[in-house]
From TrEMBL:
<dbReference type="GO" id="GO:0030246">
    <property type="term" value="F:carbohydrate binding"/>
</dbReference>
<dbReference type="GO" id="GO:0047938">
    <property type="term" value="F:glucose-6-phosphate 1-epimerase activity"/>
</dbReference>
<dbReference type="InterPro" id="IPR025532">
    <property type="entry name" value="G6P_1-epimerase"/>
</dbReference>
<keyword id="KW-0413">Isomerase</keyword>
<comment type="similarity">
    <text>Belongs to the glucose-6-phosphate 1-epimerase family.</text>
</comment>
<feature type="binding site">
    <location>
        <position position="60"/>
    </location>
    <ligand>
        <name>substrate</name>
    </ligand>
</feature>
<protein>
    <recommendedName>
        <fullName>Glucose-6-phosphate 1-epimerase</fullName>
        <ecNumber>5.1.3.15</ecNumber>
    </recommendedName>
</protein>
<dbReference type="GO" id="GO:0005737">
    <property type="term" value="C:cytoplasm"/>
</dbReference>
<dbReference type="InterPro" id="IPR008183">
    <property type="entry name" value="Aldose_1/G6P_1-epimerase"/>
</dbReference>
<dbReference type="InterPro" id="IPR014718">
    <property type="entry name" value="GH-type_carb-bd"/>
</dbReference>
<feature type="binding site">
    <location>
        <position position="83"/>
    </location>
    <ligand>
        <name>substrate</name>
    </ligand>
</feature>
<feature type="active site">
    <location>
        <position position="267"/>
    </location>
</feature>
<dbReference type="GO" id="GO:0005975">
    <property type="term" value="P:carbohydrate metabolic process"/>
</dbReference>
<feature type="active site">
    <location>
        <position position="162"/>
    </location>
</feature>
<comment type="function">
    <text>Catalyzes the interconversion between the alpha and beta anomers from at least three hexose 6-phosphate sugars (Glc6P, Gal6P, and Man6P).</text>
</comment>
<dbReference type="InterPro" id="IPR011013">
    <property type="entry name" value="Gal_mutarotase_sf_dom"/>
</dbReference>
<dbReference type="Pfam" id="PF01263">
    <property type="entry name" value="Aldose_epim"/>
</dbReference>
Amino acid sequence: MPVDHSDSKVTLNHPKGSTVEILLYGATIISWKVADKQGSLQERLFVSSKASLDGSKPVRGGIPVVFPCFGAPTHPDHLKLPQHGLARNQNWSFDSIVMDNSAGVSVRLTLDSSANPKNASLYPKEFRLAYVVTLAEHQLSTDLHVENPSATETIDFQALLHTYVRAPADNVFVTPLHGLSYFDKTEATDEARATAKTETRQEVDVKNFTDSVYQGAPGQYRVTWPGGSLEIRAKEFKDVVVWNPQEEGRKMSDMEADGWKNYVCVEPGYVRGFVTLEPKKSWIGQQVLTVGQD
Ligand SMILES: O=P(O)(O)OC[C@H]1O[C@@H](O)[C@H](O)[C@@H](O)[C@@H]1O
């Protein structure tokens, strides 16, 4: 079957062999496999072998969905929320199969503020999220729809797709970020973290602890390493975060030994400032991942 779903997981199978697995918990994509040139299926995302996949905590790897705040909350509406918000640690619902043909297999998952009684005390605003995941032969598209169902209130939110790209961290490069202004979250003081830097590197590596928030980014990135590459295209996600904790990764209880050596996070998002959504309006942020064919 092109789409299989159980109480906890949705699996998409493309007729040309690629597959994707999505946990309903957090709508977290936990696997994306695409054939290599020899025709053998290869995992394209990193998920820590110590990640919790039972809905007890956000998944360390794959593509967690970040909404309505990125990092520690700063907006007055978000202050009771955990780091990276509530979407990555709630159960989403399987809504429908959107498309099922040779071009792609696509499903829609949803999360409404009213679905979880906890939300009223955590977050004072109503929201409706829909996540459309589309699998093609060499491509994975993820569209996050945010709808404001209120007739009177606006919503201010941030959103980001926290993509863990499977790649050797000591030999991976992200381009083109040269000339962009960014905020370096590895700096020691609040003042230094809040001071914009300008990226001077043509090719950004993550050989050192990296946690950089690029603003006004081009929306099209290339991640390359010996023997592989991935193109990332983004729409409405105007910023991009590049993160690899290096040895700091040891502090994470769900990070496997040396796990940080096996990925780079390249995370398209709207995280500098907030999207303000007027009553009854909606917003769509999109990420498209394409495996390099070179
Ligand atoms: O451990 P978490 O909550 O999944 O976050 C992982 C990382 O996510 C990145 O997006 C942030 O920029 C980092 O600061 C953070 O450490």
